[in-house]
Amino acid sequence: MKRLRETLSQTWLSIQSSLFPWLSEELGPLTAKQQELVTALELIRIEEFIMTYRGYPGRPAQDRAAIARAFVAKMIYNLPTTRALLERLATDKSLRRLCGWENKHEVPDEWTFSRAFSEFAKSRLPERVHEALIRKNYAEVLVGHLSRDSTAIEAREKPVKKPVTESAPTRRGRPKQGEDRVKQQTRIERQVSGMTLSDMIADLPTACDVGTKQNSKGYKESWIGYKLHLDVADGGIPMSGVLTSASTHDSQVAIPLAYMTHERAVNLYDLMDSAYDVPQIREISQQLGHVPLIDVNPRRNQALKEEIAAENKRSRLVGHKPAEAIRYHERSTVERVNARLKDEFGGRMVRVRGHAKVMCHLMFGILVLTANQLMTLVT
Q1: What molecular function does GO assign, one term (predicted)?
Q2: 90 shares its domain with 228
Q3: What is the pTM of this model?
Q4: Fewest CB atoms less than 10 Å from the CB: which of 15, 16, 183, 209?
């Protein structure tokens, strides 16, 4: 973490001492939001991941780099729609120039923005930029705690009806001599049987459907849309994310997320709530060299539930807190990241349809949130 702060401090010093004064001479005094946008754009360098079409035959496409920078600005300013972004670009000269357009008439129309966004979603642009940002800054950094959780993403589209599958009738009792009964593997069992990471991701459901969960007050809540699963490191830095159908159980995404994050950074502890209390998840965490700290889920075991309650009561009476329980409190980091994504970076304002576009929209927000949190470690 010390090495990470040193690297980010050098970047922040360069931005503060050179870039801000130069831009202030060109555009006038920068507002707080403009400084935040400049810092994010300088840190993520999204234009380096966009292919240019100059020199190719045919009509040249609009400058995709400027449009991508504008989508980053959309998340910084927490604008609800692309139309609101265009209205802001039409009236804010400084913002327009920061994105890459000198004059108002150079800004493309809404349809061009829509086509460009489709291209970004198809090429997974914000996901690739985010992965490169994490790999660059965490190449030689040891992460202490990695918190894993999901959050509901409401979408404006119709849920896909699940097809009715007729299961073959199963016989009760012991099988007859010579009878071979094949038990179908669960998704988690398939994941630990040797699937590659790409196969695990492809096997997850991605259609829009209805999700249900129990809130903190014990009441059930339902929503139409998707579910975003995140791995978050100390300091509130999102390390990786996967978007699935709203009805997907959290435990089915834990193993792909673990492998995805393991390729980007090294961590010590995996913090998860009781939804991830599955033996295979614990085994994979230990195989990757981590210490899994997972809240125990007694399920229908009433004796185990009473035993856990009695143990917690005894610990409170003697004022004892195990080290694992103290470390487990760090899991609130992922909940704060989910809240910031929804409140400040467009997580509640999903106006696109389809898994790829919804993921692209959310990853633009996660990308900006990551840059913001990295700079917070320094400032």
Answers
A1: transposase activity
A2: no
A3: 0.89
A4: 183
